[in-house]
Design brief:
Blueprint (H helix, E strand, L loop, with lengths): L2 H20 L8 E6 L3 H7 L15 E3 L25 E3 L2 E10 L3 E8 L2 E7 L8 E7 L5 E11 L4 E11 L30 E4 L2 E5 L17 E6 L3
Parallel strand pairs: 3-9
Antiparallel strand pairs: 1-4, 2-9, 4-7, 5-6, 5-8, 8-9, 10-11, 11-12
Protein name: Chitin-binding type-3 domain-containing protein
Pfam families: CBM_5_12, LPMO_10
Keywords: Hydrolase, Signal
Length: 237
Amino acid sequence: MSMKKRTAVVVGALAAPVLALTLPATTASAHGWVTSPASRQDQCASGTVSCGQVKYEPQSVEGPKGLRSCSGGNAAFAELDDDSKPWVATPVGSTYTFNWHHTARHATSSWQYFVGDRLIAQFDGKGAQPPADVSQTVDFGGLTGRQKVLAVWNVSDTGNAFYSCIDVNIGGTGGGGGGQQPGGCTAAAWDPTRVYNGGDTASYNGHNWRAKWWVSGDKPGTTGEWGVWEDLGVCPS
């Protein structure tokens, strides 16, 4: 190989990492799901309900805009559409504050909430990048009893949306972010907006929890054995 060719190979090898670093990132990096009330994929991730692949990636339930599907039309997550699974329904009042957690914050067109084909709430994203956590108070508009709410996060610059189904019992104890959890839990439901001090208790996903020190926003069950939340065990039935 000539000296000129060898020089070109070396320069190309050195330039490749630089090119890789400067190439634009893809736009398919947005992810998110509803964490409160506990959505179906959130219950899968926490082990409340036995699920397959979605338990490892609750944030990835993505599909074309306009669907009315808990799975977003994704065959790998089809069990989210199975109403016969033992999904825990959160008791709520006539309104409740829903919390989306975005692991990748993509420019947003809107968030929508449906019961069946009925649009019960919509929030404008204004094409902006949302914060990691977004709270929205939804009015159920006179609906009562057990209902399946489909929450949809429409990103603004792709044809896709993220889907999250939440089972609620409208008219049970509870309201905007508080109330009692099902299954005999004695502590009030965990509220992502509340400040908890050491010794305060909360219930989440069928367990009672106690804060070891000051905390706000950290979801029980996600901080690990040495984290802020102490698991007091499964709520009695």
